[in-house]
Specification:
The structure holds two protein chains of two kinds.
Chain A lengths: L5 H22 L5 H10 L6 H20 L12 H17 L4 H10 L3 H23 L5
Helix pairs in contact in A: 2-3, 5-6
Chain B lengths: L2 H18 L5 H8 L8 H20 L21 H17 L3 H6 L6 H25 L2
Chain lengths: ~140, ~140
């Protein structure tokens, strides 16, 4: 557990929580990234623009942080190439089919005591843990 | 305040939170899912920190009639636990475990200008919009 960073993790989480609370308090919406992304395509007229602005902020936030400390944007990818592309397609389809991801089900849904979201969160976490265990057993993880 | 400006603020807060908590980094997320290897519980603390705010916050908002900038709250209404929910969560979980990326960090991290970010995000967008298009064409009369 040498990589464990509980303090920055908790403070980062609080900011994500504030984001979700603000989006509900002001716009009346769940801060679910996959839902907001899908909504860019499926939303009725006039409901697209604010979603795009959310994503502008989502991308700008890390850039602002990297001005403070450059290594905030140093990211490492355990896999690359075709496997990464397959993962992207699975995440895209899975989050639309399952109506949510880590933010929509994990943060917002659990906060509403939604049984549906709690089941979804346990399911995708279990699937993720099993996938990583298989990857590790197959020698795909360093 | 416009709805777009308030959404921009929410996006910024979300992006800064992902950065500070290091959840932008796929290797860090894999560390959380690597329960039987070199486990890093940080992601659980990120969710915990977020719930610390959303649990009491939503509880209070539930009693309000409408949000600041809209005529109504859009609380999700679906309650059914079905094959679609479980199947989607399984597919998402496999992709998440393979890559260490879920939709938030996948989008927020593109400022790093890493070619892998673009590969994943491109594929994810194909998956999202491919699924939506397939559903739409299926439900047409």
């Amino acid at each position: 557990m040498e990589n464990f960073t509980p303090v920055t993790a908790t403070f980062g989480g609080i900011l994500i929580g504030l984001s979700a609370l603000w989006l509900m308090a002001a716009n009346g919406r769940i801060a679910g990234i996959s839902g907001l992304l899908g909504g860019i395509m499926g939303a009725p007229k006039g409901e697209t623009r604010w979603r795009v602005w959310f994503f502008v902020g989502l991308i700008a936030g890390p850039l602002v942080m990297s001005l403070i400390r450059k290594d905030f944007l140093d990211i490492q990818f355990p896999v690359s190439g075709a496997l990464l592309a397959l993962a992207g397609i699975l995440v895209g389809i899975g989050t639309q089919m399952g109506s949510g991801c880590t933010s929509g089900h994990g943060v917002c849904g659990i906060a509403r005591f939604s049984a549906r979201s709690i089941v979804a969160t346990i399911t995708f976490m279990a699937a993720g843990i099993i996938t990583v265990a298989i990857l590790r057993a197959a020698g795909g993880l360093s | 305040m416009s709805r777009s400006f308030s959404a921009l603020i929410a996006g910024l807060l979300f992006g800064i939170g992902l950065t500070l908590s290091a959840m932008l980094n796929p290797a860090k997320v894999i560390g959380f899912l690597d329960l039987f290897g070199n486990w890093d519980p940080s992601l659980a603390f990120v969710m915990g920190g977020a719930l610390l705010v959303t649990l009491p916050g939503y509880f209070i908002l539930r009693k309000k009639e409408k949000p600041l900038l809209e005529t109504q709250f859009f609380w999700p209404e679906a309650t059914q636990i079905d094959a679609k929910l479980i199947g989607g969560a399984v597919l998402f979980g496999i992709g998440w475990g393979l890559s260490g990326l879920c939709p938030g960090p996948a989008i927020a991290g593109i400022g790093a200008l890493n070619v892998n970010s673009f590969i994943f995000l491109g594929a994810m967008i194909v998956g999202v919009f491919g699924y939506i298009l397939a559903i739409k064409s299926n439900t047409k009369p």
